[in-house]
Design brief:
The protein has a single domain, classed as Spore Coat Polysaccharide Biosynthesis Protein SpsA, Chain A (Alpha-Beta Complex). It contains nine helices and seven strands. Helix 1 runs parallel beside helix 2. Helix content is about 45%, strand content about 20%. The longest helix has 18 residues. Helix 1 links the parallel strand 1 and strand 2. By secondary structure, it is an alpha/beta fold. It has a seven-stranded mixed β-sheet, with helices on both faces.
Length: about 240
């Protein structure tokens, strides 16, 4: 089983398209899958958009009454995937974004890496859609801002948030982390997640993906300077990741 985990906050204009395109991808492959979505206290029409899809797709929606943040949404989704799986050594979870920057057509590439024996497969993004100079700078230098604990051999992009993980590897990472898997938020949470998973993975792979920044139907929520400060401030939490290894 493949659990596609999609955290969403005010992504009403794109979440339906992401779900439908993902359905088409799995329809072509014939693989068993479930769609798991967290609606993180959205204030737009996300809830109304999801209702009809839940009737025709293998979709489960968890709604937060108020916004708890990206990291909390990701942790909820991964925990749910693990709870539902009865074959964690075979099953995997795919994490992707609801704003359509991550294209569902690349999901089979991530899953193929798991099928071939990797425990963690990370999509390393080629940015398309005219991102600002500041955004490009931030993506390029994010690992340096996060420090050495955010470095995983063989990986260049630690913050894309597009990945697949074998659920047995996720279970080990959760056991190591205790009550809370992620201590940071935003892009730093992606790097922290990859670091924690990689610490428990026998094999880590990277696959090239395209990140389309012009397909989201809202302005970017990333302010490069603020995000850079957040990444720098996340170093302490990532040192805690290293302490568990």
């Amino acid at each position: 089983m493949i659990y596609v985990c999609i955290p969403s906050y005010d992504e009403g204009p794109t979440i339906g398209l992401v779900l439908w395109k993902t359905r088409q991808v799995f329809g072509d492959s014939g693989r068993e899958y479930q769609l798991l979505v967290v609606d993180d206290g959205s204030t737009d029409r996300t809830a109304e958009t999801l209702e009809p899809y839940a009737k025709v797709l293998p979709l489960s929606v968890v709604r937060h009454d108020h916004r708890e943040g990206y990291a909390a949404s990701v942790e909820t989704l991964l925990q749910l995937a693990l709870e539902r799986s009865d074959r964690p050594r075979r099953d995997c979870a795919v994490l992707m974004q609801a704003d359509f920057s991550h294209l569902p057509q690349f999901v089979p590439d991530l899953v193929r890496g798991i099928d071939s024996g990797a425990d963690l497969v990370v999509g390393e993004a080629k940015l398309e859609g005219a991102p600002s100079r500041g955004y490009r700078w931030l993506r390029r230098w994010a690992p340096a801002l996060l420090g050495t604990k955010a470095k995983v051999p063989g990986l260049r992009d630690m913050v894309s948030g597009f990945l697949a993980v074998r659920l047995s590897c996720l279970r080990l990472a959760l056991k190591d982390s205790g009550d809370q898997l992620l201590l940071t938020d935003g892009w730093a949470a992606n790097a922290e997640l990859i670091s924690r998973l990689a610490a428990n993975a026998r094999r880590v792979e990277a696959v090239p993906v395209v990140e389309r920044l012009n397909l989201r139907q809202r302005p970017s929520r990333v302010t490069p300077w603020d995000e850079a400060k957040a990444l720098w401030g996340a170093r302490r939490a990532l040192r805690l990741v290293g302490a568990t290894r």
